[in-house]
């Protein structure tokens, strides 16, 4: 059995561990932190960088909310469509049952 350290090295090579550990700090606090540069304003850091990062996060949050709203609308529409299809099928079943009864009488 391999020692634990060697097993971790196989799962997570050293370059991945270093890259994972280098992402420290707040978004917009300068280049190389929070996922990289992202433009001259964010690279400069400071309050403008933080503000830009906040705007970016807000943008993606709104995008996710819009996607969820559309998904919900789609599910509601799908449900009403399926209910209407069930009603149509039940009506068709009734019509066919009546036709079968008429045929059995003859």
Order of helices and strands: HHHH
CA(first)-CA(last) distance: 83 Å
Query: Main beta sheet: strand number and arrangement?
Result: none
User: Could you say which overall geometry the principal axes of the C-alpha atoms support?
Assistant: rod-shaped
Strand content: under 5%
Secondary-structure-based class equals: mainly alpha
Mean pLDDT: 77
Extract low-pLDDT stretches.
17-24
SS field, number of helical segments: 4
As a whole number of angstroms, the C-alpha radius of gyration is 30 Å
How much helix is in the residues?
over 70%
User: How many beta-strand runs?
Assistant: 0
Account of the protein in words:
The protein is an all-alpha fold. The protein has 4 helices and no strands. It has helices spanning 4-11, 14-21, 40-44, 46-105. The radius of gyration is 30 Å and the shape is rod-shaped. The N and C termini lie far apart (83 Å). The model is unreliable at 17-24 (pLDDT under 50).
